[in-house]
Amino acid sequence: MTGASTGASTGSRIRDVTGTVWAIIALPLIAILLAFGVGAVIILGSELLVGEPFDPLLPLTAYAALLQGAFGSFDAIVDTLVATSPLVFGGLAVAIAFKAGLFNIGAQGQFLMGALAAVAAGVAVSGQPPYIAIPIAVVAGVLGGAATGFLPGFLKAVSGAHEVVTTIMLNYIAISVLAALVSGPLKVPGSPSPVTYDVGNAGYPVVIGRDGHIGIFLAVIAVFVIRWLLYRTTLGFEIRTAGANPDAAAYAGMRPRRLIVLTMVLAGGLAGFAGVDVALGLTHQMTSSFGTTVGFDAIAVALLARSEPIGILPAALLFGAMRSGASLMQIKAGIPVELVDVIQATILLVLVATPVIRRVLHLRGTQNPLATSPTISRSYGSESVL
Amino acid sequence: MDQLITALYSIPLLGLVFQMAGYLIAIVPPISPIILRSATPIAFGALCGVMCERSGVVNIGIEGTMLASAFTGWVVGVALAPTLGTPATELFGLTPALVIALIAAIGVALAISALHAWLSISVRADQIISGTIINIAAFGVTGYLNSIIAKSSPTSAGAFSAFQPPTALTDLPVVGWLIGMFFAQGPISMSLIVFVIALQILLFRSRWGLRTRAVGEHPKAAETVGIDVILVRYRNVIAGGLFAGLAGASLAMEATNSFQAGMTAGRGFIALAAMIVGRWTPVGSLLAALLFSSFLAIGQALSFAPPSGQLGDVLSSLPSQLYDALPYIVTIIILAGVVGRTRPPAADGQPYEREAAT
């Protein structure tokens, strides 16, 4: 709970910072190193499986290519930042729900609906000047995501249907809705494949290098806005209280049902913004197979960042860099890009087993990184809503 | 009779409902084996959920466990098929390779369940996060290995084939299609019914079942009468892996004979919904799974054998993707409608901390 110390006096904060920086980053760092170690073992193991000539240095070749693909040139760095920006929005979408004790696995569906709405609106206003077209497309995308987040929040508040199941169902429904619209009403007439028109003037302007669009900066701004929202506003206080102790929140007169819906709308809007980021910043149109793993990576980002807005930035950069560098790794070392998923899962696995790691390494003082969201599984079924 | 039907069908709007009912009455018997077949992974997944949650452990990693065992079953089968791939018996198309592959698939599911048990019982991690990690890891590892193996374009290991009940039985009026539904199946689907009934009886009529439910409802009370809460939970979560393994195996070794990345496609989560709708009972879970799979199968039937007439015109104007989304939409609607009236085991999802001995 790094953010909880912001209320303390400045003097003790500085001492806190020097004292706890290591304590905060030690475990994530160990987790990351261990995960790359596990990745190396899997690479070596799969070499044996395929029966090609055994190359003991293949993991190093692969990781060097990964690093080069992510940071090897100016363009590579910009591409990494472009890949990072939707993960920042997505990570915030999952993190803010965690703060309220909700598990938003549905970031992927909200992301897809946000992107779809942004493209649909962007195509409609593609001929307008950018200062009109971009805001309209952005707002449409955010609303698309927010609407997709509203539904599971509303269902949970009204009937107690657990958001984990409903949001996952919505992820699959979103894929079908997207495919139906892109091969139906939004399709370019006469085009052989299902694809929409270009968003034209609604596309994000490129400001750095080849692809560096303004979404990179919007993502950083979003982090600070959400941080402000969580720690400086009444709503943020209510969200954090509801997450930390729902009974206390209800006793204090906060309305949990209203908070659930509001948080899910907010989370959906943020995930929708991630969709806007990819659609207006990168693809500029939509195919029926549109879909990256942004919404799923976002869960890992939020967990690694302990749901703290500031922590989202480095966590998103890590996964953005891996996604961005993975294709060069596949080309140079022949390692499937799915290795990134393996590394990602191992990082989380190590983090979730923190008490064990701490015992083994005699680390002290740090909180369980995942203990900031211990209330998630309490609200299964209908009992503890309200 | 025919005139009555024609009259009913021609009522504006309401006639569509009658046409739909007529279509369903005609289509359900022939597709009933498909309904049970597609209910199999969902129902087995739900049984895994019942095992875990009745003892107080939420297992959201069923999806990943199913995926991992589907992959294992397929890959072991492929590896052994050249040497052990000749059928030993006509029945079910059993080969030694398939049997070993099935055992391997179950073994992997048991191992993953043991990991989940350790994380949620001993480490006392958040159980939903533990399950999510299993899902991400299973998706990553199977996707990774699948794209490596796909390079060498492996030959298929084959699959369990369905039993053919005598046509004299399946052609019986009224009940014939039910015999076909339950017996024109592969071994995994056929075993489902046995497992469901056995588990239902065990859960509510045996000492094990009583202890399991006590631990899931009030672990502290269970501990005071001498039940080892930790042991019961470990045993149930790991044993639940058996069902997740069978669920995965049914996908890659019975319903199909191949593996695709992410082939579980949310069935592990639909299984959880089936468990909730079935009120945490085995029989209820099976019935809910059959309900879900009926929509799946009818959705497929609508695109393969579309109804004729006015109803067909209406349906063909709908986008085909609607049918893909149908099972998920139905899951949400039923879950939202039913869940408010169900009650999960009271200690579900809460780690148990034994009080220090004094």
Structural class of chain B: mainly alpha
CATH architecture of chain A: Orthogonal Bundle
Report the average pLDDT across residues of chain A: 85
Summarize the main sheet of chain A: 2 strands, antiparallel
The chain pair forming the largest interface, with residue counts per chain, is:
A-B, 58 and 56 residues
Number of discrete helical segments of chain B:
15
Category by helix and strand content of chain A: mainly alpha
User: Percent range for helical residues of chain A?
Assistant: 55-70%
Shape of chain B: globular
- The helix count of chain A comes to 14
* Overall helicity of chain B: over 70%
Pick out the low-confidence regions of chain A. Answer: 1-7, 366-375, 377-386
Rg of chain B, rounded, reads: 22 Å
CATH top level of chain A is Mainly Alpha
Element pattern of chain B in H and E: HHHHHHHHHHHHHHH
H/E element string of chain A? HHHHHHEEHHHHHHHH
Strand order of the largest sheet of chain A: 1-2
Annotated CATH topology of chain A = ABC transporter involved in vitamin B12 uptake, BtuC
Percent range for β-strand residues of chain B: under 5%
Task: Give the biggest beta sheet of chain B.
Answer: none
Structure write-up:
The complex is a heterodimer of chains A (386) and B (358). Chain A is mainly α and 386 residues long. Chain A has a single domain, classed as ABC transporter involved in vitamin B12 uptake, BtuC (Orthogonal Bundle), CATH 1.10.3470. Helices cover 70% and strands 1% of the residues of chain A. Chain A is built from 14 helices and two strands; from the N terminus they run H-H-H-H-H-H-E-E-H-H-H-H-H-H-H-H. Chain A has helices at residues 10-50, 58-71, 74-99, 107-124, 130-159, 163-182, 215-232, 234-244, 246-251, 256-283, 294-304, 309-333, 339-352, 354-361; strands at 206-208, 212-213. A two-stranded antiparallel ribbon of chain A has the order 1-2. In chain A, helix 2 (58-71) packs across helix 3. Chain A is globular and about 55 Å long. Chain B is mainly alpha-helical. Chain B has a domain at 28-264. Helices cover 72% and strands 0% of the residues of chain B. The radius of gyration of chain B is 22 Å and the shape is globular. The mean pLDDT of chain B is 85. Chains A and B meet through helix 1, helix 5, helix 6, helix 11 and helix 13 of A and helix 5, helix 12 and helix 15 of B.
